[in-house]
Amino acid sequence: MEHPSAVMNGAASTALVVAALRAIETASSTPLFTDPFAARLVHAARMPRPLPTHPDQVGEEDKALFQLAVDSAALRTRYLDDYLMGSPAPQVVILAAGLDTRPFRLDWPPGCRVFELDHTSVMEFKQKALDQIGARASCDRRPVAVDLRDDWEAALVEAGFDPSQPTAWLIEGLLPYLPASAEEKLFDAVHRLSAAGSSIGVWATAQDTQSAGAPDQRLSAMYATFGIDITDMANTEPRRSIIEYLPSLAWKVEENTMADLSKRYQRPLPSSRRRLTFFTAQNSF
Ligand SMILES: C[S@@+](CC[C@H](N)C(=O)[O-])C[C@H]1O[C@@H](n2cnc3c(N)ncnc32)[C@H](O)[C@@H]1O
Fold this sequence. Notes:
The chain is an alpha/beta fold and about 280 residues long.
């Protein structure tokens, strides 16, 4: 039988890293959110050298670097939790859900439908692990296994998505992995499927990854020691700026910097952190 960690390869393995960072944040003294499932999802992968899921498991030499990654993941997770919980949309679509457990840990309004899209291997691994834990969704959760470089609209509609209703879209940690043409197609689909009153929450653009600096290279080297090689995963093809493009389609974009979020959530960060894009957009058509 295939080892569980084998299904979490390529871009999917980055979902394990995010779950580990969320687990460490959850176990910290002042967490910005609580993800009670993150550690168990990481353990379910049974990695030969497991990622840490508690601050005490991080080696002394890796502490500063891990903390940088944990703080960044904590800020974006909380920012996007707040975005989703502030949205009145009756349906939510999480593009590249990975091991995100928002359908299980957030307090959704009654009847809210939450669609989670990711690769088949990731969705199957996640379902099995959550079933073993006995996790119960706090919304009408609809997993949809797709490759987001292909056409995924039909699968989404088949799963019960209603294009006549407003949607809150979530695109967290996906864009750096997509080819330029797939990113264009993805936003064209999001725009086409968005009824009036829809919104989009995004963390990280491909351009962010292209400007990655020394801390990111050191992080990649550290993840490689856990058997997760993210060095060549980002797609570096040049592409249009999505933040500049969305307003031309009548989306109103509100961008936040890491410094804004660090202040809002009182989580100090070293000033050398590179630029990372956080934005939400509301449609006005
Ligand atoms: C960094 S993880 C982020 C996961 C999740 N959004 C979170 O924040 O926990 C990136 C995710 O993108 C998914 N992904 C990347 N390319 C994809 C594609 N072409 N189709 C479907 N999923 C994709 C990976 O499988 C992985 O789960």
